[in-house]
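In response to the reviewer comment on reproducibility (Comment 2.3), we provide here a single inverse folding case reported in full, input and output, so that an independent group could reproduce the run without further information from us. The structure tokens appear first.
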């Protein structure tokens, strides 16, 4: 195979120019989601263009043509030099991060038709990624983090499978949270099952280490508990968000259409 870097089209040079200010899309599924949800992707590479487009034809026909136009094939060694940890699909891309102004506009838009998830000082990058994926799946307006964790850290983007582009992801202080009733999840709260969560709710979850901060508790309108046996101290952060978003959707929250399965295909996992 001819390496286009050597051939003069220079995706590697473009990559090096843009990498510091861009979002790394690591793997086929992250690129697929980012393109599907409108991300601007200035450079995308694959170590095997034919295999990547075949995967797109099978799993993501809606974006196959867009990927065909975007992807440049590079040598395997070039691909591995661009990413911290090679992905099994040998695909990587850089995307433009949505502006903070645009995200703040989405988060603060009134009336809000779906909740905002607030992670109060989360510590685990994998949890943050899993929560962004959940928020995208349920059509939540956005995910706001407080504290020092960067919700656009490459490990969070990898955990979120590129779905940062399907919801508004920002870091704010508790004082800067968008308007709306705050329902904070805490094992000492009232039983969630007796409550209908409004579509404009801020659903707040505490840190893995220490739970909800004093600032977040002071801003909360309601403290709610997930059902849990007394001997168990708490659930994992991301599973708590999953149960709460499911409760919102199952009790009449804005409807997310069930995903259609292509005819004639048996169910099988499509991705990690
Ligand atoms: C791992 S837990 C935090 C445990 C922490 N050691 C503490 O003292 O609360 C992370 C967050 O998940 C949510 N959570 C976990 N279990 C919950 C439950 N049974 N009811 C309500 N929220 C829960 C809360 O928002 C909690 O702050």
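Designed residues, in position order:
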């Amino acid at each position: 195979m001819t390496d286009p870097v050597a051939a003069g089209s220079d995706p590697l040079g473009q990559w090096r120019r843009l990498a510091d200010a861009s979002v790394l899309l690591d793997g086929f599924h992250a690129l697929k989601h980012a393109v599907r949800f409108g991300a601007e992707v200035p450079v995308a590479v694959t170590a095997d263009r034919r295999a990547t487009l075949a995967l797109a034809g099978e799993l993501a026909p809606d974006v196959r043509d867009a990927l065909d136009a975007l992807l440049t094939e590079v040598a395997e060694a070039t691909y591995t030099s661009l990413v911290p940890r090679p992905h099994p699909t040998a695909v990587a891309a850089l995307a433009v991060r949505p502006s903070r102004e645009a995200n703040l506009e989405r988060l603060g838009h009134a009336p809000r038709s779906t909740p905002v998830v607030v992670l109060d000082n989360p510590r685990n990058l994998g949890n943050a990624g899993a929560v962004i994926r959940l928020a995208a799946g349920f059509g939540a307006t956005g995910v706001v983090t407080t504290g020092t964790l960067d919700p656009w850290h490459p490990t969070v983007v990898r955990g979120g499978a590129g779905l940062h582009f399907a919801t508004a992801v920002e870091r704010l202080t508790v004082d800067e949270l968008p308007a709306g009733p705050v329902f904070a999840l805490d094992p000492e709260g009232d039983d969630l099952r007796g409550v209908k969560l409004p579509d404009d709710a801020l659903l707040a979850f505490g840190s893995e280490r220490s739970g909800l901060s004093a600032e977040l508790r002071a801003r909360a309108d309601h403290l709610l508990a997930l059902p849990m046996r007394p001997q168990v101290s708490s659930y994992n952060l991301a599973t708590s968000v999953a149960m709460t978003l499911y409760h919102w959707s199952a009790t009449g929250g804005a409807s997310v259409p069930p995903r259609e399965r292509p005819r004639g295909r048996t169910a099988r996992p499509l991705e990690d």
